[in-house]
Predict the structure.
Amino acid sequence: MKVYEESGCFDPHSITDCQDLMGLPAATNCHNSSEDNLNLSSYNHHHHEDVSATMDMETHQHYLLDNTTTYNTNAHLIPYLTQELSYDQSNWETFNMVHSSSAAAESAAAASGGGGYTPTPDLLSLFHLPRCSFLPNSSISFETAPGSPPVVYDPLFHLNLPPQPAVFRELLQSLPHDYTVPADDKDAAGVGGLYHDGDNGIIEFTRDISRAGRTKNRDKAGKTTKHFATERERRVHLNDKYQALRTMVPSPTKNDRASIVGDAIDYIKELIRTVHELKILVDKKRCGQDRSKRLKVEDAASAADAGDVDCKPLGDPDRCYNTSLRSSWLQRKSKDSEVDVRIIDDEVTIKLVQRKKINCLLFVSRLLDELQLDLHHVAGGNIGDYYSFLFNTKIYEGSSVYASAIANKLIDVVDRQYAAAPPTSNNSL
Amino acid sequence: MNKATIIEDAITYIQELQKTSDDLSEELREMEASSEGGGKQMEMEGDAADEMEKCGIKEEIKVTYIDGNTLLIKIVLQKKRGCFTKLIETMDYLGFELSETSVTTFKGAMLFSSCVHGKFVDALMIEQTELLLDMIRSKEGNTC
């Protein structure tokens, strides 16, 4: 994990590129960024957390450069950069990596407005950066579009500076931890790692900051005012999307994000199975219809014209032979009952669990007749508060009933009976 | 790919799949409506009766009084389309609650055995098992 590397040499040309790339709205950003940098413990970025972090390092650096006069007075607090730079570098101290105290931050924040301030030592001490040749009055405007990928141009990349991973790790760990990063690793695992794109020096922070941040205690003291509104909006939007996803799933379980995603995954798989099954059925049906039409035509033709029967090639019926095995499985749950329907080829296995209130066997068997299912085996009984039934049936030939129809109708019938039945006392039998 | 886009993509994909499945089922329904029904039912039932005769399975009904309100009923019937429904209807009519049920079909015959609770168990003594069988048969006869 290295973004900033200590340099012994320094290439001024790259810095001008850097200036172009990283445009910071000087007016608004300066003040706020200093606050940001100073209030490490209260940092809060999300998508552009990585970028902002680095950018704020830059801006802070820039800001520091802006305040050379203050530097001179408070120089002892500002880390040493490089010797080549013309700035005053006396009295750098290295501080420990602990978060700055809020007092220091506040005083720093207060002072920044006034122009004389004591910047937080922690972050700065981690900067062993070559000072860019930013002119004190140059303004770098930087725009991060919300949701933009966390890409940072490292001006020093091509200098092949020796890495300082330890420092950087500490830097990351000292960064604010109040990122709403994915709580589960599977989201982070996919795009982990900080890597260099060898071609153009683009370095992409992905989840490393989040991972590093997660290990420490989260400090949620306050958010930067600059990002508060968009941050909250973003969260609200994301929550709305989760809820929207939940409403699309037929039997949602719990209301937490992991369950929502899990249910969505199961539902998508079920939909894919259903679509596959329906396609097979439609093909079979179409094939059957074609065949019967063809037979009719042939009959008509042969009736009309006794001798001439060679109009149709005889291989047609065989072409429709569908080799794929129809299979399908889905479950439906409601408050009092649970239905599980599995279909392999023409055999349908139905499991039904219903709360022991009324005997649904009658209605279920009526429905099975309606659906043209031939009962081969039934097993049912009481289990505590519930009735549990297993039906092994076969689909009568020619019927194209499909799994979701069965399940939906079944759960419908059962629920309707429940609603219709008068509420009985617990043990009337 | 961040969280928000993943969730959005999931929502879109689910909607797509739902639409596809609805379209396909609609198409299937239309095809069902326009196609002719199968005339294979009668063949199957005719076969069932023949098979039963071949294996020597006879229709019978057996009722055993177990305890209190409980009966054990065993019925062998010729399997016809919807006979199970008739059976259950009869049970319901007699006010029986089926607590354990098992149905098996073999060679055109259906074996139904069930542990039954009922209020009027005393009334249905073993002699009346024939009555029960007749009831079931008559119900079948009405609809066939």
Observations:
- Chain A has a mean pLDDT of 62.
